[in-house]
Amino acid sequence: MEAREAPECAYDRPEFFEKYSQMSRSKYGLSGAGEWPTLKEMLPDFAGKRLLDLGCGYGWHCVYAMEHGAQSALGLDLSEKMLQVAREKTPFPQVEYRQGDMEQAEFEAGSFDVVLSSLALHYIADYDALVRKVHRWLSPGGRFIFTCEHPVFTAQGPQDWVYGPDGQISHFPVDNYYCEGWRKATFLGEPVTKYHRTLTHYVQGLLQGGFELLDLAEPMPPREMMDLPGMKDEMRRPMMLILSARKRAE
Known about the structure:
By secondary structure, the protein is α/β, with parallel strands linked by helices.
């Protein structure tokens, strides 16, 4: 499937934003995000570092970095509604939030020591171009860590289970895995456009873009969340992927 221009930012639609604000990760921050225990262990030491957060949302990761000694943090997001919340929740003057498209963003070479992105890269059309940009923006030895929806989760498109005649979950569909490109998905009952790419593409994009791979994880729901509705079913297929990489020495 060929790439096409993404629609307006779904998160600025009032109905969609209201539904998002009721999610556990919106109400409780990092502790409400199922992937956080895994991601936390993969983060670098933020002491004295300059962070760029691509698709920063409510700014939770910018705040976390500052709480752990970061020199500064810049959060970039397409949604002005998300940034309004982020500014309200952030007590650190060293944090700046900007509205913008990460695919169109430009920064000086070596501007950051850490680039982080949480559940945003499946919304971009040109992953390889962004990886090259991130490489340029990072200082020597800088770190790039991101989470995205797992290719098993994005492959088929709608991202819903297949149900049996009794209404119970039968299985999760995986189809057109090697056919990369945009997908029409439903998130929080609203139509959104996402981009599917293979696991090989995610990894090779980093390796060919000047990075060395440090870690890879397919986070499972934490034990303390297993009693939440639907969480046990999340053990039936991977929903998220986390990759950690370092800018290779020239």
